[in-house]
Amino acid sequence: MEKIGVYVCHCGTNIAGMVDVQEVAEWAASRLKVRGVVIGREYKFMCSSLGQELIEKDIKELGLTRVVVAACSPHLHENTFRTACKRAGLNPYLCELVSIREQVSWVHTDKDVATAKAMAVVSGGVERVIHQVPLEPMKVSIHPDTLVVGGGIAGIQAALEIADAGYKVYLVEREPSIGGHMAQFDKTFPTLDCAACILTPKMVQAGTHPNIELLTWSEVEKVDGYVGNFTATIRKRARYVKTDLCTGCGICWEKCPKKVVDDVFEAGMGTRKAVYTPFAQAVPRYPVIDRPNCTYFLKGTCKACEKFCPTAAIDFTQEDELITVEVGNIILAIGYDTFDAHRIAQYGYGRLPNVITSIEFERLCNASGPTNGEILLKDGKTKPKAVGIVHCVGSRDKNYNEYCSAICCMQGLKFAHLVHERTGAEVYNFYIDMRTAFKGYEEFYQRVLEEGTHFIRGKVAEVNNAARNKDEEGKLIVQVEDTLVGVQMRIPLDMVILSVALEPRHDAKETAKRFGLSCSADGWFIEKHPKLDPVATMTEGIYIAGCVQGPKDIPATVVQGAAAAARALGKIHAKEIALEPFRASVTEAQCSGCRICNDLCPFNAILFHEDKMVSEINAALCQGCGTCVAACPAGAISGTGFSNEQVLAQIEGLLLLNVDKNAVPV
Amino acid sequence: MNNNDTFEPVIIGFTCNWCSYRAADLAGTSRTKYAPNVRLIRLMCSGRLDPTFVFKALANGADGVMITGCHPGECHYIEQNYKALRRFHLMRRTLQGLGVEPGRVKLVWASAAEGAKFAREVTSFVEEVRALGPLNWGAGENGPVTAYHSTRQEALA
Amino acid sequence: MKEYAYFPGCSLEKLAVSYHTSTLETSKKLGVKLKELDDWNCCGSTAYFHIDELLAYTLTARNLAIAEKTGLDVVAPCSACFKNMFFTAVHMKKDPDLAEHINFALEEDDLNFSGNIRIRHVLEMFAQDIGAEEIKSKVTHPLEGIKVAPYYGCQILRPRKDHEETENPHYFEELLSAIGANPIEYSLKTRCCGGSLIISSRIAALSMVRNLLECAINQGADVIATACPMCQVNLECYQQSVNQEFGTQLSIPILYFTQLLGLALGVPKKKLGIGKELVSASPVLAAL
Predict the structure, then answer these.
(1) For labelling alongside A258, which of A186, A583, B61, C179 has CA 20 to 30 A away?
(2) ipTM of predicted assembly, 2 dp
(3) Every domain of chain A and the residues it spans
(4) Which residues on A lie below 8 Å from C211 (Cβ)?
(5) Where does A137-237+323-335+505-578 sit in CATH, by number?
């Protein structure tokens, strides 16, 4: 029989004001003596050091083997009491904290009823703790290498932090160069720093860092394992360029006769060749051959690049390479895609010339873009005299995406400023609200206001070219209600820029599945806790950073990249981590191999051994939800901490079936 | 449990550690009052709910059982509350076959922020069970519960 | 042989009789049988729904019930009739209480509507049910060189019925291409013509008509094709009023798409009611 100590906390008057704590303690000591309770105490504040000492003393002097504390919610002090037990030499998992505050004294109004319920709750706790077994947290070793998926600013930041700390990083990027969306921008708000100027030093650092292995033009195909012990299979796609010989001189793309529209980096506004690097400052500088568009692969002729390459680096026979890496942590930073503005037919995107998206406008503004940084109309020569910027295209809209994309207001202001600066045109910003929350943002808004930008509060109804008078002929007419004055307006413009929503990557859901993560209904990856743990996920060892978690600006992205790196480094530094021991395990002898449990686990923690015809649970992957425990028809799976015996016993205790009816009545 | 003549049902409630248990905690910190007839058991997930628990509770004196968990789509373990949902429906039909009114078992989704909802659900469920009257399943001289107790007392002696 | 129950609607009896005859002629040519509903009544148009919703629904439902008795899908040439019928059926399906009330009244006439038939607009029937391919194969006199503005109007598209495209549909253009005509890029093709505002708020409606005419003319149309008698009347009969009001000199023929379709299928002009319009289409059609 166990020796159980019951401690009832007053919590000042929080509990004692409604529950007769002394009565409960005495009741436990007498009526549950038959169950093993050897002492029942009450104290003003059990969580205080004196309170804890009471427990520790009793463990040592009375040889307690189990402890029940009736106080506040276990979410507050479970650890406190467990640690106290540990200090006294009792396994911390042999301590049970039952709530008689949040669930009794604070929610009921009748003292007798509340006291009686507190007794039942204590009784349930006693029965449960009898069936508790000593548990040890599981230790798992951590491989020091890290996999960072996504080479945008988030991934680059994370990779640099980890590499600078002295550990190896594999930085995988699906495009030929790292840099992500930020490399496409011209200026960044609110400082109007040139995006490339602040990004390329980091790109170069990442490209030359001895601890970073850059795997561009590559994708992760498969991930197995668990925290500290992941195995990733990465496909390095064939570049058809020998990177050990290539100097990045650029002769190949100069000589290549095949031009294609670049709809990735140039967002469809410019062209590139079939052999190319996405932009001049690409890291690494090795080009790739776009096989579906290469004359040689299509027709067997040309080979101009090979002919002119001074180092014989072109290799049409190259094949994809599959490599496997072992890592301890993974950081996912795959970024975002933009909303397809074709979906809003009334804005005329794709139909009316000079209606462009934000990314397309960034390319126009960029000095190395298709117009060398000049803001020009589709004809390639005319400067616009009136430009409209439409906010919230595809955001904050029940028909498309309900969320706010966080950056479009600042982006719209940035565009307004650039248009003023480079064209002197009249600028109209059509907005619903101005969201300029962070450092320097509101001041930037004021500045743009002072530059003479026209702000019209109203959701643009349509962009059309049906002119009604001479002034409107040949123009794009924006129809909008200025809701601040309540007037319908028709504004003739030369160019309309649509601030399109940020959306998850089109293949985000597949990617999430590959890593065993989940996405919200919108498609953003789910963080462990939206307020207190935004870079961790439900899977230990896998972190997320940047827009993959939700739309955000560059500073927030950089912060998340660094945060994820810090988490990974913490684990690496600790060399091994302890996992909570609430796991399920299969008793092999009782398992009949029915495999009902196999498909129930969302963490893929249950394996089936074909040779022995039994299932086994990988304790490191198991998160302890207990679904398989409940499902096993043979009862062959037990869940530590929440075993069947414990719960069934707790039910009996709560229903007072265990009470010694003959003990001295209280 | 108390002295007046109205029947006071005893209800066992299962909560999940991440959402509904925290909802109960929130009801507590907000001092939202609700009926005292429910005694809660904490599980890690509603998916842990073994139908045996429900049968045990009802057979041992509970008049009703309330099962709570995270909203579908919000389960901490991703999708286990769907499994709880499936089990719940099957279990309720089984109970009905055994002569237990389906109204004695209820499934409620409550997120960690829904303390008020938790309290409301408890109170309304208590009334629903009160209207059904005491279950007294297995009570009586030769009923399984009485027999169980006599064998147990022998064992404890 | 496709068969439909045919609901002409009040305006096709007199004012828009050319729409009526051209619809019948063209469907005959394409082997589609249109059986006019027996003892049909007015659909209530716009006005009635603003006076008494329940009675208005019932009025329309009576036509639906008569159509359901024939077991055929019902087709209507007028966008307002079409819209009223379609959404009466939708509301009756969504609201069993409404359906009960309506069917209770219809019982008097031994009628009942259970929502088992489809309701189509004549333009949908030609452009989608029959299809551009089928029509193209039967064209004998393609309307070469004639630039047509495809004017959908608004009530055929809005409120949205399903997931179809309401801002930038293409089926009218496809139909016009199939008959050899040249559908122009018409920026206001889904814009309202003003409807009955022409009576209650004349200047506002005239302004709307003006925009539609000007845009079509500026975008190069020779003729505007419509699919609704209200649109046709507003656009054609008020051109003079528009010019008087705004000092413009707009003039463009407005024909029903079925008239153009009939021409392409070799139906004689007289049978299509061509030659009776206020703004003559002869100069445009002379080329044929």
Answers:
(1) A186
(2) 0.87
(3) 4-135+647-654, 137-237+323-335+505-578, 238-319, 339-503, 584-639
(4) 466, 468
(5) 3.50.50.60
